[in-house]
Amino acid sequence: MDVLDVGARLLAVLLAFLLLPLLVGQSEHKVMAHMQGRVGPMHAGGFHGWAQLVADGVKFAQKEDTVPAGADRRVFQLAPAVALIPYLIVLIAIPIGPDGMVGQVLDAGIFFVLAVLGVGVLGSLMGGWASANKYSLLGGLRTAAQLMAYELPLLLSAASVAMAAGTLSLTGILGEFEWWWVPWQLMGGLVFFTAGLAELQRPPFDAPIAAEEIVFGAYTEYSGLRFALFLLAEYAGIVVVCALTAVLFLGGWHGPLADQLGWLWMLLKTAGLCFLVIWARVAWPRLRADQIQKFAWTVLVPLALAQIALTGVVKVVIS
């Protein structure tokens, strides 16, 4: 790669990072407004409430950026960036289309993206600990406990796809992909997608920020743009988890006329999964913290292990 090529790829990744989470946030306003019959988000600015996202941005920018008197100021201010930046790094390794449409091809792409995603929880832990607030600390600890529980089924379900493809590279997995994998790996895909939602603390797995129990979890003391960065990290995480699910279990850019429209198929699959994330927020009630832990260890982990066993059997049979 020459300097211009590297620069173009990094610019494309940065633009996707800045644009796609905002589109998901705007879509969430509209989808939830339709599902819940809320008229406000549908009228801001005129046509279909196009200015709702702008209004939210102005609101966050105008709010005072406060730091609690007893807080560890440096850690408190750094936490939102630690929560957000891992998702930018992960986007570099996710292939969007064929013929090199990826920021950087990595031989151990699965390990890289899952390891970097795990760093994001440090932002919540740092914010909860540095806030000098017992409710924030409790929310941060809940976040850490939830990550530990759901990291295992996430890794196991991704390992099943790596076994099937015989490679840890995301581009290599797409190169080996066959359509008959979709029903065969469906159980692993459901486990991966569900565990990803739990790691993002999205409903129904949002006990770490249960407002009726611990105010707003690790983010209780945050306001203004720093709080907006945590929200942006959540929406960026939705994009990343949905894109990874599409790559690992739905064939990524594979589809009719993949050579010309592969990038479009990838975007459509990612958008469809993002819609499911928003739908789950509206349709499902919140689980308690103990129910979340029980679901991980008694349901998702056994299903992920069963998927690995099935993959091993199928690999032996076809070889």
Automatic annotation (TrEMBL):
One Pfam family here: NADHdh
Protein name: NADH-quinone oxidoreductase subunit H
InterPro entries, sorted: NADH_UbQ_OxRdtase_su1/FPO
Keyword annotations from UniProtKB, A to Z: Cell membrane, Membrane, NAD, Quinone, Translocase, Transmembrane, Transmembrane helix, Ubiquinone
Function description: NDH-1 shuttles electrons from NADH, via FMN and iron-sulfur (Fe-S) centers, to quinones in the respiratory chain. The immediate electron acceptor for the enzyme in this species is believed to be ubiquinone. Couples the redox reaction to proton translocation (for every two electrons transferred, four hydrogen ions are translocated across the cytoplasmic membrane), and thus conserves the redox energy in a proton gradient. This subunit may bind ubiquinone.
Species, as recorded: Streptomyces litchfieldiae
Transmembrane segments: 6-25, 78-96, 108-131, 152-174, 180-198, 227-251, 263-283, 295-318
Main location: membrane
Reaction(s) catalysed by this chain's protein: a quinone + NADH + 5 H(+)(in) = a quinol + NAD(+) + 4 H(+)(out)
Domain of life assignment: Bacteria
EC number: 7.1.1.-
Topology versus the membrane: Multi-pass membrane protein
UniProt-annotated location(s): Cell membrane; Membrane
Family as reported in the entry's similarity comment: Belongs to the complex I subunit 1 family.
